[in-house]
Amino acid sequence: MPVANDAPGVDIEGTDADAESGDLPINELFQSLQGEGRLAGVPSVFVRTSGCNLRCWFCDSYHTSWEPTHDWFTVDDVIAAIEEYDANHVVLTGGEPLIHDSSEDLLERLADRGYHTTVETNGTVVPDAPIDLASVSPKLASSTPTPERDPDGDGEWADRHEERRLDVPTLANLVETYDTQLKFVVTGREDMAEIERLVEQLRDTASTRVRDDDVLLMPEGQTRDQLEATRKAVADLALEYGYRYTPRLHVDLWNDAPGT
Ligand SMILES: C[S@@+](CC[C@H](N)C(=O)[O-])C[C@H]1O[C@@H](n2cnc3c(N)ncnc32)[C@H](O)[C@@H]1O
Ligand SMILES: Nc1nc2[nH]cc(C(=O)O)c2c(=O)[nH]1
Ligand code: SF4
Ligand SMILES: [Mg+2]
């Protein structure tokens, strides 16, 4: 279900404009196959909130981060829209879904109804809510929107993005609280040193184990053509480092069209 654009009141900074109303800014809600990660191929309903606290230059959901658009839904409306589909799996994504307090309410109510929930998150926020799979995608230095890579300006977001993108105690808290996969967007071999360092820091900090199988390398690419150019090198890196590779099935199948 594509939802209305240019609705008023978007909170691009990701503070709690929605906290009082309890509503959620929804960019799109649709059924597809989970395209990424451990559950790739599983039919799922996707709930995409709008607004993000980061600005990755490569963001494949531009209209939830750089130029957010959405319609306001009550949590009841979101549940009703999900129930229209015959699915057991719900993926809450964005934007950054965990900047919205009402995402916690939604996750509680989905758990009460027996849904399996995956949350796609950048790993900067720890919620107080049940989640079956925390699909955490920590943002590497290569994601920073430098002036040369800014899709929307001259690097105005670079410092804020850089300050916020990684916080090891927050990541460790997520890993300890939830069944977690760490899904890194890989732009090239240059990213591997930072991934190795971060995994090591997490192993030193978190009280639960981080297995190599929980670390997934995902090729950067918003289109089929871009992925064609990156995926082989990233698959080779996964083999070399002993981590897992994840495809982006929805890009291969549908070129990441809206609603897929
Ligand atoms: C749009 S984000 C929304 C959730 C959350 N903000 C995050 O970044 O994890 C959903 C997933 O797409 C990934 N992603 C975004 N742009 C991408 C790109 N150009 N290539 C590969 N993965 C990308 C993110 O890293 C994340 O795993
Ligand atoms: N099919 C499909 N799978 C996905 N897995 C994570 C997605 C996301 O944007 O978070 C996504 C998406 O947008 N589409
Ligand atoms: S954190 Fe996620 S939604 Fe936000 S800009 Fe990066 S990829 Fe896009
Ligand atoms: Mg996506």
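^ S-adenosylmethionine complex. The chain has one domain: 24-254. Residues 200 and 210 are 9 Å apart (CA to CA).
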